[in-house]
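hey team, just a heads up i'm posting the complex here instead of the shared drive bc the drive is being weird again. everything in one block, sequence lines first with there labels, then the predicted structure for the whole assembly after. its two chains so it's a bit long, scroll down
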Amino acid sequence: MSDLDADKHNFGQLVRPMERASLLFFRKPRPVYWEHLFFGKGSPLEPIFSKIGENRKVDLASLLFNLEIDMENEWLGYSKEILRSDDPATGQHFYSFGVLLAYAYLFCIRDLHKFNLIKTKTHLQVIDAEVVLTNLILPNESVLLPFKDVPFEVCGLNLLTDSLDDLTPSQRQSMFAGYFDLFALAFCRQKLLLEALDNAASIAPIRVIIRNTKVYTGHLNGNSRIPDLLSEEQIQIERGDVPYFFKRIGDQQLHWISSASGSTSSVQSTESFKVDVDRHAQTPSVLIGSPDTIEKKMAQGALFLQRKFGSSDSCEFSWNGKKLLLEPSELKNEFTGSYFSSRKKS
Amino acid sequence: MGGIMKEVVEINLDALEAEAESFSGGASSC
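-- predicted structure starts here --
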């Protein structure tokens, strides 16, 4: 069995830096369609999110849609370098984190660990997005926050602070301000969003990560063998790749690239992964089918964050011109009249 | 919209966390 290079997929293909017209680009031998749709300049979603936040005077779209992407074909694209800043994190960085957390949760974008983000002078910018439209339960599944075996040291928030305990009340408030501003806008523009996504939803491949890459590394090192390896994983590992699977919207099948010429095959049986695989590559109407769906998602995510942060803060935000009150276990939205509670019944 | 508050919607965070954790970690090389 060959050594595993963590970044190799589909017959040894790697993302590589390259120069184009004296500018640094990254050649990505994988689908970049979704990266463009959710984070690219000129995306059809960009005008829908182009609005100044209610709780901070910054255009929400400017914190999201900054990638310059050229799509050569379904399996190859180029992305222009995003400049990194080593300046200390500001209130706006925490606000942008809240915007991004809400956005990733809303559109169910996963795998946003810190190596898939860049801290710029103004915000956190996603630079790699392959796993989208998964029906997520909670916002930490994006891995912008720690989730399962993704520790704080590699989650997205680690680009702004060293631990959850180090977050100040003011930073938490900035984060929630961004989170609620994004959801308030999505709530109001739900029809526009659904229409734009339905029009843009393509059959471009959407990656499905059935096991974390480090699980494969452990398997290869002999540290922790995978007992239920699928035959399609075994074949890819033996050829030196990190196993790569994908789905297309509206297709229940999980696929993989089975020949060097790029032909694809279906996974014969997803076995214990079936429920997880089924929730990937959802149609947009499942995820943002109504304003009520969006509001409930916002509430359960916010109450989860309060618990995750161990926060006893009570804060008030503006939400579509009315008050939104966040307490440790309660959320009251005066715009809709909704009242959510995560208080345990005695 | 606004005005009278609707009935309280209970959010069971323990159940949601358990459900989320039943799925894969979903993290590439990191």
